[in-house]
Amino acid sequence: MSKDKSLDAWQMQAVTVASAFKAAAQHAPDAMYCKSAAGALNYGQAAGAIQTLADELREDVQGRAVALILPNSPAFLIAYFAILFAGGKPALINHGHPDSTIAKLLGDLDAAVILSDRVHPGAKTRILTEGALNDLFAPVGIAPVDMARLIDPTEPDDIAAILYSGGTTGLPKQVPHSNAAIVATMERGDWGWRTGADEIWLPVAPFTHIYGFLMGLTNPIIRAGGVVIPDRFQPDLIVDMLVNEGVTIFGGGPPAIYQGVMSSAKFADATFPKLRICPGGGAPFPLDVHRRWEAATDLKIYEGYGMTEIAPISINTEAHGILRGSAGKAVPDTVIEIVDLETGDTVLEVGEAGEIRVKGPHMMTGYTGDMDETAIALRHGFVYTGDIGTLDADGFLTITDRKKNVIFVSGFNVFPREVEELLLTHPAVSGACVVARAHPRSGEVPVAFITLRSHVSADDVASFCRDNLIAYKQPAEVVILPEMPLTPAGKVDRSALQSGLKAT
Fold it and tell me: Where does the record place the AMP-binding enzyme C-terminal domain (predicted)?
């Protein structure tokens, strides 16, 4: 993929993530870069803090992994780019993991330094809080940064980020991505969610997640945009920020985030005067979420598809077509194929459901230190996604389900998303998640967990399903919850729901 011809000369020179930030800081030093409840930084101030921290770290971290364990914050942004300018390899570990998980991840990493807001055993920890950021800024009256000294030591083949796969079984696996791969990812994200000058981004997903990484760290700097960072996901707070912060791009993420925002008591009367782009990803979007969001805001959700191993894969775009309920068309120079579930070797016909495999210049090269998992995920030059989907004649990709989420009922395959889509057409149902429960005769049966926007009984919802679904697809039980459990990435936590079920 050649460089986007719509980019200015200062943007086209970036071949690494660090050089992309430096280009933005040189071009617009006075533009707002990031803002949180603690205050705002412009690009020049941020560059100065990055340079100070990079100078401090350089001797210890050159060529080595550096663990970054912070919540979404200006401190996270400063730390990430400082690691790059110091010549280190940022490893982004979710701040929300339990201490036992973090300890295991650190044990597998061999980090030179840990940048965090608390001490972690096993390596030198550099404490970095919002308050500690003040020590990195130049005194008043001194130029915030000497751009000539802000030297990017990285090359396109150097590691720009070590991310962790979002699998729900076992510990997450290290996924190292080069500068070249991340820059290719940025270009493809901008191809889909085309941005302009003076954008204000509101990311919600953790910056350690591939979606939050793109919405909070990388793509805002393409045109020197600003990032406003909520200190938590709380629907009323998000509505207030969309109204008051001049947000133009809402990095909402999975459908549970949009559903949460629409559940806010403030949402119905709110107007978002500058909001224009609403990306979606992380999980397939029910049609009901698309309809409700557009009816309320007059804005479309531009749903896309990606994973830690390669993102984005496809996006719905104004320029290339939108199909509600689909994940859009393949991003440039990216091949999507649907293959049989048994062997993964036979490419299926248009409209047939099978496993999605994909390849492109921004795909991973493997999992660090895990040859067995790499051999499963990387075959024939493709990443095998573990997702089930279809491609139509126009190239739109529709995600049917996760391969591992398929429910096997008396020899029939039940795809949870089909049942969830039906449940969400019920006027009282605001959220739905369908999981499998073991059954001595059928093998498995579906169980539906729902949240409500108005009163209805579980029996009424079960009756609704009986009226609209063939017998083997009907939920064996409907469970009403006050709210859905979410993973740190904002997806409905299917594992948490399933773990509480008992075989019947």
Answer: 418-491
What is the tally of structural domains in the chain? Answer: 2
Q: What is the pLDDT of residue 136?
A: 85
What is each CA distance from 206 to 10, 92, 356, 491, in whole angstroms? 29, 10, 26, 12
**Residue 302 covered by a domain:** no
CA distance 234 to 267: 12
Quote the pLDDT of residue 284: 80
Structure tokens at 304: 């896309």
Question: Domain ends where: 181, 198, 215?
Answer: 181
**74-128 tens-digit pLDDT:** 999 999 999 999 999 999 998 888 787 788 899 999 999 999 999 998 789 999 9
Return the CATH number at 446: 3.30.300.30
Phi and psi at residue 85, in whole multiples of 5°?
Answer: -70, -20
Query: Which parts of 274-412 fold into alpha helices (H)?
Result: 287-297, 371-377
Helix H or strand E encompassing 400: strand 397-402
Give the residue among 71, 402, 302 at the shortest CA–CA distance from 205: 71
Whether 443 maps to a domain, the answer reads yes
- Domain extent for 428: 407-499
Which of 118, 152, 181 is where one domain is finished? 181
Residue 78 belongs to domain with CATH number: 3.40.50.980
Q: Is residue 232 part of a domain?
A: no
CB 423 within 8 A of CB 461: yes
Query: From the CB of residue 71, how many other CB atoms can be counted at a distance below 10 Å?
Result: 18
Distances (CA, A) of 130 to 36, 74, 231: 10, 7, 11
Summarised one tens digit per residue, pLDDT across range 233-246 is: 899 999 999 999 99
The three-state (H, E, C) secondary structure of 225-277, written as one string: CEEECCCCCCHHHHHHHHHHCCCCEEECECHHHHHHHHCCCCCCCCCCCCCCE
Q: Which of 330, 357, 360 is nearest to 346 (CA)?
A: 357
Lowest model confidence (mean pLDDT) among 98-112, 182-196, 229-243, 259-273: 98-112
**In this predicted structure, what is the pLDDT of residue 401?**
79
Domain-embedded: residue 264: no
pLDDT, position 304: 96
Q: What is the dihedral of CA 307, 78, 102, 253, to 10 degrees?
A: -30
DSSP character at residue 485: -
